Structures are given as C-alpha cells and as structure tokens.
Design the sequence.
C-alpha cells in the first residue's frame, strides 16, 4: 500500500511569534522531521495557506473584530487576523521544517471570496486544490497527516481524506490546536474518529 505524509500549514504565521500563532506549534516540528527521517513515504506533500491580502476571512477586510463570525458565500466564516498573505514572511514554511524530501506543495485559500481549511478543497466544496488528483495519480492509498491546526485545517484535511477513500491516520504528537474555545481540540479529535480517522498516539 503506497503512503504519503501530508504536512498541513507549518508556516511562520501559525508558529511562535506569528500573526495567528497556535499554542505549542513549534514543538511539533522535530516530531515531523523525525517522521520523514525514520519512515519511507512514497510522497511527502506540504499544504500552504496562501491568501491574497484582501481575503474575506480576515476581520480587517470586513470591518469586524477577530473572533466574530459572518456568513461568507453561504457558509459560516470565523473572522481571523490577517495571516499567511501571499509572498510574505508569514506565509513561508518555518525554517526548522526539513523540506529535503518534500515532493509536492499544494496552495490553498487563494480565492478572495471563500476560505479553504482543507488541503483538498475550499470550505464550500466548490473548488478542488488538486491534492486528490496528485495522490490518485501516484496510487497513494494511505495518508498520514500532521500539522496546524488540529481543530481547523488538519481536521478538515483528515475528514476530506476519508471521504476521498484514503486510509487516514492522524499523528496526535504532530499537531496542535488553536483552541479558540478550550474544548475545540478535543472535539476535533472526536469528530475525526467518528468520520473514520485513525488517531496515532
């Protein structure tokens, strides 16, 4: 069974000191590097949040406060601080993430009008990123997933992976949650398990 490692959004803005820093984010980087060093993956894919500066998921572009919610093109949208803006330092991958064995990069969130948490598609399930096509082309059947953040982009990438027919495993030690609300991370784990994701300790 061919397998791929999907590394979700390990970018400066989600790491320590970033515009949308995930608590404990930097702790997962050595774990991810060790996975790549100690395992043989047929493909290693990075996903990258890649927002235009006027993206409508940003509170600043809606006259809203961070933490408010709006309906954006028919789906609920949490209002985020400006983050991972195209061609900025914040959007770059963290310097400590070893990219020597990376075979593919998928950029998401490029459409001003809709956010894209999942590495597979945008939040209204309208536009695909090409990740599924890439994996299918390379006959990948098993996905191991790590990255940021567990309760948003990692969760939706994992659920979409299951829905696209992949055997899907989340490395618990390779992810951290934003926890906008204290139980968000815990609830995300329950959601993923219910959808058929295997959580590895």
Sequence:
């Amino acid at each position: 069974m061919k397998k791929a490692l999907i590394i979700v959004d390990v970018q400066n803005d989600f790491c320590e000191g970033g515009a949308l820093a995930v608590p404990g984010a930097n702790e997962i980087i050595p774990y991810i590097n060790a996975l790549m060093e100690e395992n043989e993956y047929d493909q290693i894919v990075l996903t990258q949040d890649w927002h235009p500066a006027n993206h409508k998921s940003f509170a600043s572009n809606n006259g809203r406060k961070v933490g408010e919610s709006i309906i954006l093109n028919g789906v609920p949208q949490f209002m985020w601080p400006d983050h991972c803006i195209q061609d900025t330092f914040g959007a770059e991958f963290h310097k400590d993430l070893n990219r020597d064995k990376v075979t593919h990069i998928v950029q998401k969130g490029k459409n001003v009008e809709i956010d894209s948490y999942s590495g597979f598609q945008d939040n209204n399930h309208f536009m695909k990123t090409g990740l599924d096509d890439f994996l299918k082309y390379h006959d990948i059947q098993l996905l191991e997933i790590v990255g940021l953040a567990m309760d948003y982009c990692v969760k939706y990438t994992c659920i979409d992976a299951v829905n696209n027919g992949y055997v899907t495993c989340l490395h618990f030690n390779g992810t951290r949650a934003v926890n906008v609300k204290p139980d968000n991370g815990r609830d995300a784990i329950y959601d993923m398990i219910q959808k058929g994701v295997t959580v590895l300790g």
Observations:
- Residues 5 and 44 are 5 Å apart (CA to CA).
- Helices lie at 28-38, 131-137, 150-163, 184-195.
- The mean pLDDT is 97.
